Amino acid sequence: HTLGIEFHDKKIPSDKTMKTRSPFFCRLIISAFLATFTILVSSAFGAEVEPLLTKMRELARERQWSELVAQFKDEDLAAWKDVPAKATEALSLRARAYAVLKDGASAERDLKLAVEISPKSGEHWHELGALYGDVLANPEQALAAYEKAFAAAGKSMSWLPISATLNTASILLQQGKPQDAQNVMERYDSA
Questions:
Q1: Residue 6 φ then ψ, to 5°
Q2: What is the pLDDT of residue 74?
Q3: Is residue 12 within 8 Å of 4, Cβ to Cβ?
Q4: Under a CB-based contact definition with an 8 Å cutoff, are residues 41 and 82 in contact?
Q5: Cβ–Cβ < 8 Å for 111, 90
Q6: What whole-number distance in Å separates Cα of residue 44 and Cα of residue 83?
Q7: Which range among 36-50, 89-103, 148-162, 170-184 shows the weakest confidence by mean pLDDT?
Q8: At what angle do helices 84-100 and 104-117 cross, to 10 degrees?
């Protein structure tokens, strides 16, 4: 005889019955609860950051870089990790503003955090490569970032792997390494 609660014509066992359940069953119940709780918290947090991200997008679209930095320089975008797509977009927007304003160190910090949150994002690796190549004048770091961008994107005819390849070859040519540049370009040889 168990004292339970009727729920949709199913009897939920009492504590006495639950004590006889296997540890696996208990872990399964706890895991399901935690997964549901995480989804609910992430959804609520995602809705909370959306107005901020919308404002960042507007400022970037209007190329108001100084205003974007002024409004969001103290925003803890690392705290947005529960909504990674929004976090990395916000970090990328702020990094772009910092780069335009020639604050390469702050742009680098934001883009490094973006690739930490989303290491398979070829776009963020590409942005980091461009920052190293154009703003921070660090060709070796640029080459490494472009290679990660290419690896994340894979060989295709989309803009990202082609741009990463062209930028890598350009840096190698500037370094006086034409054979290395040619080898990189041969990724797209049809032979």
A1: -80, 130
A2: 94
A3: yes
A4: yes
A5: no
A6: 10
A7: 36-50
A8: 160
Under a CB-based contact definition with an 8 Å cutoff, are residues 92 and 107 in contact?
A: no
Q: Which residues are bridge partners to 10 per DSSP?
A: 7
At residue 5, the 3 state secondary structure works out as strand
The two three-digit tokens of residue 66, written as one number: 């100084």
For 122-172, how does the pLDDT look when each residue is reduced to its tens digit (9 = 90+)? 999 999 999 999 999 999 999 999 999 999 988 887 899 999 999 999 999
Phi, psi for 144 (deg, rounded to 5):
-65, -45
Alpha helices by DSSP H, 62-138: 65-72, 84-100, 104-117, 122-130
- Report which secondary-structure segment, H or E, holds 68: helix 65-72
Selection from 136, 168, 38 nearest residue 112 by Cα: 136
Task: Tell me the CA distances in angstroms from 129 to 52, 163, 184, 186, one per residue in order.
Answer: 27, 11, 16, 20
Strand partners, 142: none
User: Is residue 15 predicted with pLDDT exceeding 90?
Assistant: no
Predicted pLDDT at 20: 53
Residue 110 has a CB neighbour count (10 Å cut-off) of: 25
Phi-psi region at 103: left, alpha or beta (left = phi > 0; alpha = psi -120 to 50):
beta
Structure tokens, 172 = 């190698």
